[in-house]
Specification:
The protein is of the alpha/beta class. It has helices at about 5-15, 30-40, 50-55, 60-75, 90, 110-130, 160-170, 195-205, 220-225, 235-250, 260-280, and strands at about 20-25, 45-50, 80-85, 100-105, 130-135, 175, 210, 230-235. It has an eight-stranded parallel barrel, surrounded by eight helices. Helix 10 (about 235-250) runs antiparallel to helix 11. The chain is globular, with a radius of gyration of 18 Å. The two termini are about 20 Å apart.
Length: about 280
Amino acid sequence: MPLTTTGELVTRAAAAHSAVAAFNIITLEHVEAVIAGAESVDAPVVLQISENAVKFRYGRLLPLARAAVTAAERAAVPVALHLDHVQSDDLLRQAPGAGFSSVMYDASRLPYEENLAATRAAVDWAHAQGLWIEAELGEVGGKDGAPPLDAHALGARTDPAQARAFVTDSGVDALAVAIGSSHAMTTRTATLDHALLERLAAVLDVPLVLHGSSGVPDPELTAAVAGGIAKVNIGTALNLAMTGAIREYLAAHPEAVDSRKYLSVGREAMVRTVAEIIRVLGGR
């Protein structure tokens, strides 16, 4: 079916008190696994390509983006394409011509006023192109190879009053909030601040997004969705599933050289992970 938009999927999920799952893709196997997993539970899904993934692909956005668009157009469920954690304005400007309906513009590393100014400029340009824009306020951490942030450190969390001003002044369509999760966690031990999430949901009129969700246990994810999270980003969980399955296969088959053998095992492990996460989020 034709590509849908991230904004449409997130708005629909928020109205249903569920959340749309957004999976970061790196290889064609990721693309195929995310779509197959979503199809297995008959749920919509968002494919996300991060700026780091673009760097991995020799700095070229179009090869992976076009593969994702082609696969999405042949999917049996609605699929949207989202450009994630963009810091480069040049990359931002490639989004409309590459099939993306949305961008997460990430200036959260900057002091508040600089974050606001950079995000406002990105929003003005992106909205003129018809793009839906997500931003981040607070410190989720764990990006760019850094160790996972101490998500409980003083000042790491999103302040509700500041978040309200940021959303109003920047014009963003969604906000990623720091409530206790961290990127790149390989254990599911994060504890979310649900009282803070309740306060954020009460003062913000845009959908809320949870980053670093791979490290969040199922009950915490379920509670976060009930508390107002409408988009849940997952990346590391897919890589854990793929890598673990490939390691197991190669240990059992040390003679293997045909990459299709072990990549197919890794892909199927990701399919199962995608389906499980979507069920937890209330997608199906």
